[in-house]
Design goal:
This protein is an alpha/beta fold and 407 residues long. The chain contains 13 helices and twelve strands. The protein folds into two domains: 147 residues, Aspartate Aminotransferase, domain 1 (Alpha-Beta Complex), CATH 3.90.1150.10; 222 residues, Type I PLP-dependent aspartate aminotransferase-like (Major domain) (Aspartate Aminotransferase, domain 2), CATH 3.40.640.10. Bound molecules: pyridoxal-5'-phosphate (PLP).
């Protein structure tokens, strides 16, 4: 293997502004331990453990057979853009025309296009913490500044109007608003969104990028609302992002989409035309089926996730020193390890940070979770419950044993 280092200065300086995804790093570390023969349970994954529904797979196979295997329009095939406009009307009561929609290879790519197409050095983007790890790094890649604002466990990890108001400056270009939240699972009621949109109405230069990726993963009858639906006066400065990865168990297919004002869509298309060009033609046809086809399996997904959430929350709250709130959505919990800081492991290591906690947990009990610092809010960790009940029970028992072993 050629391991000769690259010449000095060969790599772009912009790479120094970002980090490899910490969630992917944890998954890799767990894989390495498994390869070395260790019995490891990974709760780091950000993807459903279900298979893509059969009708969606069939639509992709039919597309291949029809020869839908060529480049497509940069913004997406007309059939999918029309299906997206229908979805926004049906589920969110939003009136996007097909021309106000955009398709990219993954929600991450939508975000990337939107931020790279709009940000200049000096611009600020408000990112409530804990946040999905990619937001601040994409902002930094664009040369702009992420302004991280903290939420609290007491507030259910929700951004409050006061905190939002205090973070807005003349340089603020976007607020990134994600709910159900990765990593905390926090959701906002219509009134809680209204309190934030009231603040935004006072600041006409601030746009909202709302990441609704986990829209369908809400539990206990919680009703999801999106920003432009709650406050139609913000429609002209909102980008409503969504995708098929989580609700339709299609993470590997790579397809995200959004609705936004047409000039912004055109700017994003300009960028994508010199980048990925288009999302896979086959995936786009599968997504037409996902959005237009039967949605009746979604309650089944929700029921399974809800049962797992309740199991994990209950078992983690029985672990000595852990405080685990019960989130309304996504498939993550974000428990606090505050009471465990300062305690020592049987091998004599003091737990000073949430990173120390997750490292010692992985080494001692073989459970992989992600430290809160990676998501901008400590001392917490994120555990994904997108895995079987049996594995979750085993993992939670190990976490209880680990916490009990700390002195
Ligand atoms: N937004 C959030 C909050 C996510 O958690 C993810 C994936 O983990 C994405 C966007 C991106 O999803 P994808 O690029 O798979 O469509």
């Amino acid at each position: 293997m050629n391991t000769k280092p690259l010449p000095p200065g060969f790599l772009a300086a912009s790479l120094d502004r970002i980090q490899p995804s910490p969630t992917i790093a944890v998954t890799q570390k767990a894989r390495d331990l498994v390869a070395a023969g260790r019995d490891v349970i990974g709760l780091g994954a950000g993807e459903p453990d279900f298979d893509t529904p059969e009708n969606i797979k069939e639509a992709a196979i039919a597309a291949i057979r029809r020869g839908e295997t060529k480049y497509t329009a940069v913004e997406g095939i007309p059939e999918l853009r029309a299906a997206i406009a229908r979805k926004f009307k049906r589920e969110n009561n939003l009136d996007y025309t097909p021309a106000q929609t955009f398709v990219a290879p993954g929600g991450k790519s939508v975000l990337y296009n939107a931020l790279l197409a709009t940000l200049n050095p000096g611009d600020e983007v408000i990112v409530p913490a804990p946040y999905w790890v990619s937001y601040p790094d994409i902002v930094r890649l664009a040369g702009a500044t992420p302004v991280e604002v903290l939420t609290t466990l007491e507030n259910g990890f929700r951004l409050t109007p006061e905190v939002l108001e205090a973070a807005i400056t003349p340089k603020t270009k976007w607020l990134i608003f994600n709910q159900p939240s990765n990593p905390s699972g926090a959701c906002y009621t219509r009134d809680q969104i209204r309190a934030l949109t009231d603040v935004l109405l006072k600041h006409p230069h601030v746009w909202v990028l709302t990441d609704d990726m986990y829209e369908h993963l809400v539990y206990g009858g919680f009703k999801f609302h999106t920003v432009a639906e709650v406050e139609p006066n913000l429609f002209e400065r909102t980008l409503t992002m969504n995708g098929v990865s989580k609700a339709y168990a299609m993470t590997g297919w790579r397809l995200g989409y959004c609705g936004a004002p047409e000039p912004l869509i055109k700017a994003m298309a300009k960028l994508q035309s010199q980048q990925a060009t288009n999302a896979s033609s086959i995936t786009q046809w599968a997504a037409v089926e996902a959005l237009d086809g039967p949605q009746d399996f979604i309650p089944g997904f929700q029921k399974i996730f809800e049962e797992r959430r309740d199991l994990v929350v209950s078992m983690l709250n029985q672990a000595d020193g852990i405080e685990c709130p019960r989130p309304e959505g996504a498939f993550y919990v974000y428990p606090s390890v505050r009471k465990l800081l300062g305690r020592r492991t049987p091998s004599g290591k003091t737990i000073e940070t949430d990173e120390d906690f997750v490292t010692a947990l992985l080494e001692q009990e073989g459970v992989a979770v992600v430290h809160g610092a990676a998501f901008g809010l400590s001392p917490f960790f994120r555990a994904s419950y997108a895995t079987s009940t049996k594995k979750l029970e085993d993992a939670c028992n190990r976490i209880q044993r680990f916490c009990g072993s700390l002195t």
